[in-house]
Structure formats: structure tokens, C-alpha cells
Write a structure and sequence with these properties.
The chain folds into two domains: 166 residues, NAD(P)-binding Rossmann-like Domain (Rossmann fold, 3-Layer(aba) Sandwich); 257 residues, Dihydrodipicolinate Reductase, domain 2 (2-Layer Sandwich). Strands 16-15-14-13-7-12-11-8-17 form a nine-stranded mixed sheet, with helices on both faces. Helices cover 33% and strands 20% of the residues. Helix 5 packs parallel to helix 6, helix 6 packs antiparallel against helix 15 and helix 9 crosses helix 10. The chain is an alpha/beta fold. The radius of gyration is 24 Å and the shape is globular. The relative contact order is 0.15. The site of 6-O-phosphono-beta-D-glucopyranose has 3 residues, from loops.
Length: 516
Amino acid sequence: MAVTSNQKKTSAAEPQETGGSGFVPVSPFDIVVFGGTGDLARRKLLPSLFHRYCDGQIPKNSRIIGVSRSAHSRSEYQKLISDAYHEFSNEDDFDAKKWAAFSDMLDYYSIDVMDSKADWAEFASVFKGAETKTRVFYLAMPPRMYANICEGLKAAGCVSDVARVVLEKPIGTDYESARAINEGVGKVFRENNIYRIDHYLGKETVQNLLVLRFANILLEPLWSHSAIEHVQITAAESIGVGGRGAYYDGAGALRDMVQNHLLQLLCLTAMEAPASLEADDVRTEKIKVLRALRPIAADSIETQTVRGQYARGTLPDGHFAKDYLTDVDVNQSETESFVALQAYIDNWRWAGVPFYLRTGKRMAQRRSEIVIQFKPVPHSVFGSDTLVNANRLVIRLQPDEAVKLWMEIKEPGAGGMRLKTLPLNLSYADNFTVRYPDAYERLLMDVVRGNLSLFMRRDEVEAAWKWVDQIHAGWEAVKQRVELYPAGEDGPRESGDMLANNNHTWNSAPILRGKS
Ligand code: BG6
């Protein structure tokens, strides 16, 4: 695909951000948020833009234009966004003077994007006199509306060379619908102007995966089937689906989390070293992993997948939690709020290494991590009575960000050769005091800067859907049961059994009682 004049090759290493203190300046820009009064805009996008404004990254004369169906005056919209900030964001980050200046950048436009009589030409007047400014259209709307909005924008002449579009996940509900959305958007925007967002890629600790793997020589010789027994990728949440029931019940954990966030984490963990951090170098390595993922055939579906749904239970903080059906307000549902998978990557590096993926709502605690379980030493010189644990690397992505390498050391003192397993601990909290920017802060500014490295290319999204679709088809074919688990526990027993069949166990972290 041709690179248009406003684009250069972009790299995840650029700009050199240092938690907000060092950055590449940008020219004033316009960002239009479709779904400007919605949850994502109020909770994440606008607060993130405010933080970047406070860091001095959003120049004067930039504009943030909320768009939605409901009628609001500019000042009403400014108030709505300010109220949302006080409701959802950290008040410690609030500076009234800066907010007043930021608020001055906010504008609002009302249009019903699904109405065939929508006056897009009138909407285009928003850009009068701003023809040369970078223009970002952020579609924080249901994906079935993406093509319509893009067509409207094109018909109104809003899609200039400097226009970019940001697509929120989920892009479709399966391969076919994703392909149709990508086609529709692709008729209006070139691939290099389409930013498919996966907010996990904007997390500090997820970007640190690239640094950990490609800036430390000692890991690479061990990073394959020759030294690694298995890999675990967990994204556990303590929250339920309350408030998003209608969407979630139609999606389930496989579509909501695995198709995007977990498969992206798997790609970053398993991919070969890219030639550079330029967007297409990284994305090309990721797609190779997705293409090498072995489909889970119908005859393996029962041994390699577990579906679960939370029943009522007691959370670690002592609170009672309702069951899934009550949360989504239905009498019956086969939708999974938990999924565990045993996947294989059929290539030279990973032959035979199980990659266990697990995600769920209402689990014991919020915890996302990647665990690299190394093989045991080939022969113990310590005698058969001494247990020698295999090394384990735990990359904790959230909430207590850290990299821990569990190693064997000699326990000092009498008693001969007693071994103890202790971690080399690279804890973020112990080493850094900067504020960790929200994932959206980095990603929004990457769009403005034209940096595509942390966004998904069309072929990645479609390959991920194909893999997920065949699991869904397998579930239907064998009528895979949805196992119940009590809210506040780490999924159904069958998820542990799946690993136990291979003599493996999920990494268990101590439960932080009293915390969610
Ligand atoms: C979203 C999912 O993409 O990610 C949500 O739709 C989920 O269901 C969320 O709660 C988790 O994100 P984070 O950043 O809190 O781990």
C-alpha cells in the first residue's frame, strides 16, 4: 500500500517519551470523537487528552470535537466532560486552571450518523479554515456503524490526505463481519491511515515486553522450546459485566478479550525479533505468529478449551457478588465470562510448547501476567531427596507491575545443601516514581504523530478472528458446556484440570485480601 505524503515510516521507539517529560512536538490538530458523549469518551479518551494537554503535548489551536446524536450546546458538552472527569478520573491530577484552557478546546456537533438524511455537508463546515491541520476521526461507536460514518465523511469531503481514522475494538464479531468492516472503511481510508486500536498495546508493561525480549541478550538463547516448558498468559478481572450486559452477552470472553488483547500479548511473547521497531516490521512478525497458531480442531476442543460463567459468590474483599445472569439481566445464557485455552504455535521456535491463555470476569483479583515456565535442569547433582524447582519468569503487566525471575539459591546456614526458590525482582513501584500514563494517552498521541507501530494491521485482525471463529465452531459442534464458577474464584475447576493433564499448574499469586 502506498504511503501518502503525510506519512513517514513510524516506529514504536518514537517518540522518545519519558513519562511525559520528553516528546516530539506536534502541530495543532483536530480530533473528532464520534461517540463523544459515550462511556469510552468520558472515562478514557477525554481524560487522556487532558493529561497530554497538561504535559504540554497538545498545542494551542488544537480542537477536540465531540460528536453524537443528542443535542448539546458547546457549553453543555464542556460541562458534561468536566463532570465525567470528576466522576471517573483521579482528582489528584486535576488542575482547575489547566482544565479551563483545555475545556476551551472542546467543541460539540450533533449528527445522527445512521440517518440516511444526515447532513454531512453541514458537518464538513467544522473544518472550514482547518484544511491543512492533521485530522483524526475517532470512532468510539458500535463497529456496525464504521462504514456508514466513513462514507458520510467521504461524501462530505472531510477525508483529506491528512485525515486518519481510529477504530475501536471489537472490529466485527467474526472473520466475515470484520472483513466487511475493513472493506467498508478501506474504501474511504488507505490502510496507512487506519488505526485499529488495542489498548493493551498502549500499556507501559506491554511495551516493556519488547524491551525485555530485545534489549537483554541473556533471554534470547533460552526463548524457545529448547528451554521453555510452557507459557501462560492470564488477564484476570475482579469486576463483573454489570453495565455492559447487552454487549457482553452477545460477545463473551473469547471475542471480548482473547481475539484481541490476549492474542496480541501472545504475538509479542512469541514473535521473532523484528528488523526494527518500525510499524510494518513489528506487524509482519506478529502476523507470522498468528498464521502459525494451530487451529483447535473439534476433536481437541474438549481437552484444549474450557468455558465458564460466574455464579454468585463472595469476593476477596468480603462483598457478595451477583451471578452473571443477574448482571446481564437474562434468565438463561450460554455466554462465557471465562475462557481458558491450550494453544500451540506450529513453527520451529515453539514446536510442542503449550501456550495457555486464560481470561475471565469476577475472578479472585485483577491480575494480568505472562509466565514463562522454564524446563527443569537435565540432571540434579543434589541427590534425589532435594527438590530443584525449574526457573519461572513472571511478567506482571498489572496491577503491581514487575518482572520476577524465580531462581534456586542455597539457603544459608547449617543443614547441608538446602535450596530455596527466590525471585530476582524488578518491581516498577520500587524503581520508578513517574506517573504511568493511561494506555490511551500514548495511543492517542501516536495517532496524531502518525505512528502505526502499536496499532493492528488489517491482516492481523482478520487472522485473529479466523482462529477464534474455529473455536466457536468447535464449541457449537460438541455443545461444549459452560462450567459455573463462584464469583471471586479463579474460574472453573476444569481450567486447572486442563493444565494438570500435562503436569502443569497455573501460576498462583497470593490473593490480596481486602483488595479487589
Ligand atoms: C476491554 C474489554 O477491551 O478490556 C473489557 O472490552 C475489559 O471487557 C477491558 O474489562 C480490560 O481492560 P484493562 O485495561 O482494565 O485490563
